[in-house]
Amino acid sequence: MMPQKRGQVPSRIAMSSYWKVLGIFLLFLQSALSLQPAQPSVLLVSFDGFRWDYIYRVSTPNFHYAMKNGVHVRQVTNVFITKTYPNHYTLVTGLYAESHGIVANEMFDPVLNETFSLNKMNTHNSKFWEEASPIWVTNQREGHKSGAAMWPGTDVKIHGVLPTHYMPYNESVPFEDRVAKLIDWFTSEEPINFGLLYWEQPDEMGHLLGPENPLMGAIISDIDRKLGYLISELKKAKLWDVINVIVTSDHGMSQSSSERLIELDQYVSRELYEVIDHSPTVAILPKEGKLEEVYEALANAHPNMTVYKKEQIPDRFHYKHNIKIQPILAVADKGWEIVRNKTDGFLIGNHGYDNTIPEMHPIFLAAGPAFRKNATKQFMNATDLYPLLCHLLGINPLPNNGSLNAVKDILVERVPGARGADSYSTVIGVFLGSLLVLVFTAVFVKHFVLAQANSMQIQHTEAAQPLLQD
User: Fold this and answer.
1) Could you give the domains of the chain?
2) Is 84 a catalytic residue?
3) Which of 60, 77, 82, 84 is catalytic?
4) Which of 46, 143, 148, 186 has most Cβ atoms within 10 angstroms of its Cβ?
5) 138, 357 in Cβ contact below 8 A?
6) Contact assessment for residue 133 and residue 95, using Cβ atoms and an 8 Å cutoff
């Protein structure tokens, strides 16, 4: 075996040092990157028609538990008209109804010559939804996964996209089954980061009983138990302290009466128009050439009904710049109903009125690692939820009518910009990572240069010594 040359020893020392330094570098780099927290997940919950003050009607321990462990916003101004589909789409787009295009529960598009009807469950035509992109579409296009349990619009392919997981709408599916699906999706091998949960109550019973009926107390208590069930299941799955949970609604509810009916048949022939969307904000489509006649007949017909031509609708409603908004809009005062005559049915409780009326405002609670605890905020707009959701999910918001700055005070850390807190952590991580790369490179170069210098010195010494003689 040939003897090892002494000049090779420093090279081995250099390589050994290289691997040691590389190992240390990788450990430090991993630690540095861990300073950037993973984006938390979000669960958005809507109890349809849950008015802001229902939590004070009866004992609601689970709502108050969430309030103690999170944030409660006292007044949420939703969008006009204060109906289910327009407001649910606002929550996930941040847009006024005139901008996102779901302007009512019942719509007619004169360009498509097609109708959209919640009452007839004719809501799956994608063209009605595609004036906007809901947040689950953006979330998935940025590489994440979404799951939806019955949220309005989530079983419609919008811009060619469905939620990663979704439940086709079926009112008969129990609340508990919807919760189970969402927890499965949040805890799967490829988990969702955004979930949406919808429940039809207390809206349905609010319509039947009226919000002032004492029997509503039992309905509110049942919703509180359902929220308690959701919290319990999230705790069992070890999700309650991990994900951000937002509980809200689309609108409130107001009490109606058979003594407060406005009968259109008393003022105008029904042969002159069609009713597209119904009380208390009635969308009227006059027959061709009959616009002025219908408007003049209704304009001052009743002291508790305000009638607008489309172009006259007040700017504060943000409700005239869309082709699906009909030529005439009749708006009843709070508690009044617009019918054709008294033989028409009407709802004891209703919504759809002016969005400045307190009875139209929904609940809003938020709890989770991103939110302050036991905190109260006085006011926000429903449009502000969308940029907040985008911030929590770490995705880029599309143009919207909301403001993250308007709700940044409910967060644990103040947010300088839409994604400021995340950017700050990223900057720290990148800086530390870059610094470690520089240190590692310097140490390696130093060892390499010293090793080469020692090698050359040894070789020079050997060359200078005389050859051994036999």
Assistant:
1) 42-95+132-255+355-418 (3.40.720.10), 261-349 (3.30.1360.180)
2) yes
3) 84
4) 148
5) no
6) no
